[in-house]
Specification:
Length: about 270
């Protein structure tokens, strides 16, 4: 019976207000009935107004976290969050190639939800060339898909083409999250391309809310959790879409400005 309960790993930073990063991942693992573990790579001092300071942990300490987890546990799937520089990405890649932590979901945190680039060029290059080829699933947002492919996405056909370009980088399965910033927008369309070449669209209503912190974390964490429980990648992505949509739809009154999504509201999703 040792280690039979589904265990999932997040490789991410700590967000002090609990709305995103490692905390959002662990919230998600819990509501999906999996046991969440973490390799902490950074910490930020932030609240609903924004991030005020950030520190990356020493690489040797990050290495040791991977080592001790591998010595004891049977991690069935993992996901990455924000990896801020090329050296950190290289450390994560080396550890993932050394230890068996199951299929990897890469949330390529390259830009903010509004398109501001977060990674310097060397870190972007390392993510694209070293980390993404290890991914079982990648979950870029609209802006990240444009940066990864050099495409301007102006239509659903462009969105699908971007997914094919990302798959050519070595990623097996991709969900390209759609544009969701128009004032009169009614719907968001996410495109999914699977390793076997099949594809489908996932559509949901657009919610005009400032409580969207942790949406990308929750989507990618749910995919990892469902894979750890034995779901197919396609079903894991569908479940993740439903969980994230439910968590956005029912706003939670936390913070003064940009708040978290509501994980409690998503607990009933099958």
């Amino acid at each position: 019976m040792t280690n039979e309960f589904p265990q999932v790993l997040t490789i991410a930073g700590s967000d002090s207000d609990g709305s995103a990063g490692m905390q959002a991942d662990l919230h998600t693992f819990f509501i999906r009935k999996t046991y969440g573990m973490s390799v902490l790579v950074a910490a930020v001092a932030g609240n609903s107004y924004g991030i005020h300071a950030a520190e990356t942990l020493p690489l040797a300490f990050i290495d040791q976290q991977f080592e001790v987890l591998a010595d004891d546990f049977k991690i069935k799937a993992s996901k990455t969050g924000m990896l801020s520089d090329a050296a950190l990405i290289g450390t994560v890649v080396k550890a993932y190639q050394t230890y068996d932590f199951g299929p990897l979901v890469v949330d390529p945190v390259i830009t903010t939800k509004h398109g501001a680039q977060l990674l310097e060029n060397e870190a972007f290059k390392a993510l694209k060339q070293q980390l993404l080829p290890l991914a079982t699933v990648a979950t870029p947002n609209f802006f990240e898909a444009q940066l990864l492919t050099g495409r301007t996405i102006q239509s659903e056909a462009d969105q699908a083409s971007a997914a094919r370009d990302i798959q050519a980088l070595g990623v097996k399965n991709i969900i390209v999250k759609g544009w969701h910033h128009q004032d009169d927008q009614q719907e968001v369309a996410d495109y999914v391309l699977l390793a076997d070449g099949s594809d489908f669209w996932l559509r949901h209503s657009y919610f005009d809310t400032t409580h969207i912190n942790g949406t990308g974390d929750t989507l990618s964490a749910t995919i990892a959790a469902e894979i750890a429980k034995g779901q197919s990648v396609a079903n894991a992505i569908r479940t993740a879409h439903d969980v994230t949509t439910a968590a956005i739809a029912s706003e939670i009154a936390v913070g003064h400005q940009f708040g978290p999504i509501n994980h409690w509201a998503a607990q009933s999703v099958n």
